[in-house]
Amino acid sequence: MKTPDDSIWDPATPPSEKTPDLVELEALLAPARWSGELPELPHHAPASAPPPRPTPTTTRRPSARPSRTPLVSPAAWACLAAAAAVIAVMVWWPSPLGPGSGAKKPQQLARLGSPYTLQHVAGQLLVGPSDSSTGGTKPPGAPASPGLQPWPASGKSTAASLAVGERITTGPGGRAVLHIDGLGTLELEADTALAILDPAVDGASDDFDAPAASLLSLERGAVEAVILASPGAFQVFTPAGLSVDLGCIYRAEVTESGTTRLSVSTGRVAFEGAGRRVFVPAGSAIEAEPGGAPSTPLRTDASARLRTLVAQADRDGDLDPDATASLLNAATPSDAITLLHLLHLPSAGPELFEHLRALEPLPRDTTREAALAGDPAAIESWSWRL
What we know:
Layout: H1 6-9, H2 20-29, H3 74-92, E1 116-122, E2 125-129, E3 149-150, E4 159-162, E5 166-170, E6 175-180, E7 184-188, E8 193-197, E9 214-227, E10 234-238, E11 241-245, E12 249-254, E13 260-266, E14 268-273, E15 276-281, E16 284-288, E17 298-299, H4 304-316, H5 321-330, H6 336-340, H7 349-359, H8 368-372, H9 376-385
Parallel strand pairs: 9-10
Antiparallel strand pairs: 1-4, 1-6, 2-3, 2-5, 5-8, 6-7, 7-9, 8-9, 9-12, 10-11, 11-14, 12-13, 13-16, 14-15, 16-17
Helix pairs in contact: 4-5
């Protein structure tokens, strides 16, 4: 019985049935292909006379071995090494379907013309033009927008090449993976709506190291992003603000009311809404309501007392001296990023500043005044050191 990978081993496979990656790999390995004959080994002439036998007082020393001509040329070894690197990357590249997801892992996709390639995994999946007249946001189970078609179509491939202006919707039990060429992958969970925007015209942030190469809009549902790109290259709008990937793995969820919940597994994410930008490191999470500022980042294992005091600070815009003392008592060194995002508090900020400066000196590229003002550049710079 043939397996899906028989084309890798069967030389009789027609080129039309091979993926572009496989064709490229075969071309790379071609110089090292075995011709069917063993190479000739060099002949070494025997020595003219045998070496003298050592006397009992002479210490025997091992003679140097004659050099051998390599069976494979350096150029062929280079080709083999490059091919091994290609195979290693294909095998190592992280799957967007984590352990216990219950979904079938999709097969490796061939590169298509568009940077966006959608892979159907399970359940209902609709693809088509984005419905800009309603903002694209529909509750789970609502009728599909005109133009959205079930995917995959009968008899068609389970992979679709998408472009700016298109929208993806998963139904109950639906699951899909969006591959973004050169950036990473995005797994869409059930009851999720996602639109592909144009970074040049749809409001992407340009405050980071790299210009936005991909801009999406998560209208509802949940996605998990696995991104390996320069900070700022991958950005996602939600009803509550804009998340900017800084090289990480994170999960974003939009509830039926529009609340955004964002948690980071590795790396960090910047999230901005209502004039406030926060930096969410690995192991931390935030929430944001439409029209409101994002909450102060908190570690997912932060104490209940710390959570209560941070929520009070976010709600009231300050803490009195007693609450500030309680905040510092409840915080551990691992909560430094949380305290850093509260430096803008008028009364509590100066005391929090001195506490943080005892943990890590202020970076040379910022000032006390900028940090106490909550300047995003100052907060970001100090956050990397903390």
